[in-house]
Amino acid sequence: MKLSVWTYEGPPHVGAMRVATGMTGLHYVLHAPQGDTYADLLFTMIERRNHRPPVSYTTFQARDLGSDTATLFKDAARDAYERFQPQAMIVGASCTAELIQDDPGGLAEALNLPIPVIPLELPSYQRKENFGCDETFFQIVRALASPIERTPEVTCNLIGPTALGFRHRDDVEELTRLLADIGISVNVVAPMGSAPADIARMGAAHFNVLMYPETGEAAARWCERELGQPFTKVVPIGVGATRDFLSEVAGITGLPCKADESRLRLPWYSASVDSTYLTGKRVFIFGDGTHVAAAARIARDEMGFEVAGLGCYNREMARPIRALAKDFGVEALITEDYLEVEDAIRELQPEMILGTQMERHIGKRLGIPCAVISAPVHVQDFPARYSPQMGFEGANVIFDTWVHPLVMGLEEHLLHMFRSDFEFHDDAGASHHGAAAVSRVEDGGPAPQTPRSLPAEMKDEANVIWLADAEAELRKVPFFVRGKARRNTEDFAARQGVSEISVDTLYEAKAHFAR
Amino acid sequence: MTVQPTPPPQGGCRNAPVLKERGQREVFCGLTGIIWLHRKMQDAFFLVVGSRTCAHLLQSAAGVMIFAEPRFGTAILEEGDLAGLKDANAELDREVARLLERRPDIRQLFLVGSCPSEVIKLDLSRAAERLSQTHAPRVRVLNYSGSGIETTFTEGEDACLCSMVPVLPATDARELLLVGALPDVVEDQMVGLLEAMGIGPIRLLPARKIDDETAVGPNTVFALTQPFLGETAAALRGRGATHIAAPFPFGEEGTTAWLAAVASEFGVDAETFAAVTDAPRARARKAIAQASEGLNGKTVFFFPDSQLEIPLARFLTRECGMTALEVASPYINHALHGPDLDLLPAGPQIAEGQDVEKQLDRARAARADLTVCGLGLANPLEAEGLTTKWAIELVFTPVHFYEQAGDLAGLFSRPLRRRGVLKLEAAE
What we know:
The complex is a heterodimer of chains A (515) and B (428).
Chain A: E1 2-4, H1 12-22, E2 26-31, H2 40-46, E3 55-57, H3 62-66, H4 69-84, E4 88-93, H5 95-100, H6 104-110, E5 117-119, H7 129-144, E6 155-159, H8 168-181, E7 185-190, H9 196-200, E8 207-210, H10 213-226, H11 239-253, H12 266-271, E9 282-287, H13 289-302, E10 306-312, H14 318-328, E11 332-334, H15 338-348, E12 352-355, H16 357-366, E13 370-372, H17 391-403, H18 409-417, H19 456-462, E14 465-466, H20 468-476, H21 479-496, E15 500-501, H22 503-513
Parallel strand pairs in A: 2-3, 2-4, 4-5, 6-7, 6-8, 9-10, 9-12, 10-11, 12-13, 14-15
Chain B: E1 18-22, H1 34-40, E2 44-50, H2 52-61, E3 72-76, H3 79-82, H4 88-102, E4 108-113, H5 115-119, H6 124-135, E5 140-145, H7 155-164, E6 176-179, H8 184-196, E7 202-205, E8 221-224, H9 230-238, E9 242-243, H10 251-265, H11 270-291, E10 299-302, H12 309-319, E11 323-329, H13 334-343, E12 349-354, H14 356-366, E13 370-373, H15 375-383, E14 388-390, H16 392-396, H17 402-421
Parallel strand pairs in B: 1-12, 2-3, 2-4, 4-5, 6-7, 6-8, 8-9, 10-11, 10-13, 11-12, 13-14
């Protein structure tokens, strides 16, 4: 038993729903108690889908448990077939139905429906949402795809995108364009956008582009083994990764794979002098393993940030993320407990967080700006505009998205110069964020944007006291670097064995850490 | 008193035939109630003993996550708990001890049963007794079921309040007990109106804090503020209290009828009643008239959701000029919903339970001007050209009593107004 308040991932049957909802012509019959239909709103509200997910729930109640839940399931499956006439069906159980052991697969088979019926075994008490996606898609591919004649020209399948995925809609479009640019057309995109008949055509492609290992790797491996299709290992998020991806595709296909980079703007934007202020900004990165790995490389190599810490919530990716962290000289945080993530962020005092919906809230609490790089995300991260993460346009989007939460270059200088100005003071926040003007708290008030509280144990360990004049001096440091200044000074004081921080200690620490 | 509403000339819906359906139900389970209950009871923590699905439901239903550390959480059952490898009770005791250590402000803990905890027959009432002994007197531990197999959406609040009834102190005093979790601002208005009539002492269930003076006994009379509290009402009657039946306090008419029923129980004279209610009644009528402009003459179709459907249909038909085509409720309880059914003009299909695909067929055929439905159905129906109002907002927004009557009408008229203001076609 584990106490949880917010979760990064839903249960595995929600992963199966993401696959089914992304597809057409497929129906999911889910043995589940009343109430599990809440999952529909993830798609209709958060993703704003204009159709109900193709899911029939048995919604059994206590009175049914005493009688015959198996009949309930069979009726639901038969009704769903008659009403929706799908090309194929997936059947399975949610966490509660798993306990009553009705065997949806066997029951559905006994109905002798004239379409393929694919049973799913998704252990709800061991695995989570991403596994549910990966396993469901794998089972569908295994049941429906078989070796067929290859297309005469070089084609590929794009695999991994699902409903409710972070920017999957736009990543598919961007990659399709990028591949078209180098003369490769897309055979099938799956699961999102495909029907069971399309899955049967997957074998015609020459290779697979694995867009999201979290949701498509099992299928990619199966296709490699059974259909003889190699798959790409580089996820093309960021400039360097996109170029690496192109050379990987060149290696697989023997084509030259020179893409048109005229739309790529990140390198120049990053090199232009206004971006100097981005140098060495300390960022903390957390999300699913794939997006974290991509973000870490972009942060360090393409934005000039310093990666202060990184980690992921999906244990399936623990090994590569640990290796990556080692390469970056930091400790990886592998956890699904957002309180641990919050503690790590509070301790590291980064200047920006690259994270998920959870980290956005943590950032709000701690007064640290955050840009979202990974699922889970909320309604505002399904934008109306085109905003991919992959390919060259994805790199442009990432540059804008990550810079937006920060105070901009010139403004940062002005804040330093006029830190006590009556209206241009730092409590007003970044000027382009449009919050109502806040009048400056006169001396004596608490410094509003400092981290609200240090964890008790940290204070005890450090055991340093801020003298009043030093505290006042710290308050003059602009808010976006104040956390760092506080932390550096306390570290410095602790290392020097100083127990009281004076103004001198503050500036000695500043000199010590000067770069 | 002369304020009783006039029944509709063509008769009401109390004896109308009810379409009873059993099929897929597109509704929340009772755990959802935790989202408002934990804000209402400021010293309570709700610990769901369940699965990852339960935790996921709570954060999804909360819509925008309440990230100030909420006073609810889920003890997620894992493989070991199910296979009997670990003693689930020992695990639960450990998690509760850890939680109470971290949150010394918690005075009442609710262990909330879920579908999986009920299917594996984890006895939470014994766990609650055991934990109460361990953590008394600082913390009182109660249990109830919010599972989907036992409860539908708002029935979770009913189960929660019902679990509190046996532990309420006994009293012989003649007191008015008002039952149902309302937003504080609405609750204050309600108490203010009744106190101005000289009614008291007034007690509340749920009380905002454990030490508040809510008690029950043979001289207690109680009124429900929500139409989904049947089990709680039965438990209170079991302790000797008397129920005041009334239409529910939605809109000017409903609020007046509800207050009048309570006032007459306490012998308030007509003059006092008028002195207290005339001004807010007039305000409410004016606000409704303004907010309901776009509703007049329009039709409405209710999917079952919260059991608020019948009282709300009564409000929309009698005070906003709408015509109800279908009014579906997860459950219909004549003792509670009867007074509202009496006032709802005959005509609409009254339905209990759900078979969602069949009901969608009816809704598409009816093409009401406004369809009231859950979050899972709203956008798909909008995409089919229907105008919808998502029902969960009716539970999360202050809508009871006079000062909110205009807001309540506004919740329904806004989707229609929005459809009217959007001009997305080319000009010519």
